Amino acid sequence: MFGSVVLELFIGVAFLFLALSIVITAAQEMLTGLLGMRSANLVVALRNLLEDPDGSFVREVMEHPAMRHLYRGKPRSGVFGLMGNGPSYVPSSAFATALLDALRSKNGNGATLPVAVDELFGMAPEIVRDMPEGVLKRSLTLMIGQASDLDRPLQRRAEMAERRLAQWFDESMDRASGWYKRKSQFVSVLLSIGLVVAINANALTYMELLWKDSNLREGIVAAAEATAAEGQPLPDDTQARLDELAILPLGWQGQSFSDAFCTAQESLKTLAGWAITVLAISLGAAFWFDVMKKALAIRASGPKPANPAAG
Q1: Which terminus of the chain is less hemmed in, N or C, by CB atoms within 10 Å?
Q2: pTM (whole model) above 0.90
Q3: pLDDT digits over 133-142, tens only?
Q4: What is the biggest distance separating any 2 CA atoms in the chain, rounded to whole angstroms?
């Protein structure tokens, strides 16, 4: 009996953390989308890649005709790089085309006529040669070659330039993905703290209530079984998870914020309970879904309770 209660308690706790994780993931995706954080992160990465502190050349590249189809409407940068409508992802081929053509227009002598993509990449060594001296020119020269390479066949020059520029861009975007992941984790923690405090999702108090109330515990286990039967939950299931939170013993329930810190012991319990919940949410919905399913499988494989009507 004791082992069954502990297992059900564990399932109930995993169910709470799963529901909160999904809500936070959905809120984070909505917030980062509204603020254009992915797009802003891309611009920062390109400014770093192209040695462009003021961002003027990056704007030329990003607003090049090869890039315009990636925008939602007319390009706008927003405020501090946020709230814009720029793309969150750029294909390496489009970037390479826009970069070379922007460099050709910026550093070429006189007006530049439109050229085909193959011809543009074939001209890459000449375009790089006309650039002003600097770190970017040295980087591109190492990848593309010099004007002396113009005696090679056009197709070979074009293929080599496109391949190396794409690889250079992809490696930079891999680093940018790491930057974005750290930023999004920070946003997730802030949202988690806000949600946990707002609904008083104190893991310690929650476990106490589950331990004492067998009916509540059984109801939450039944909800966990129904969630597990639906399959891996997605951020689109946010409304269902919010409905599930409504059945959980969360909230202030007549208790004021000051009551949670009325004594040193209560303060420690409140802060510890909130911290446990926030840290648990950071593990993600996929983690808690797997944990809950495994705990449910262990519970299902145990001995069935005796039937009191059996004689």
Answers
A1: C
A2: no
A3: 888 888 888 8
A4: 101
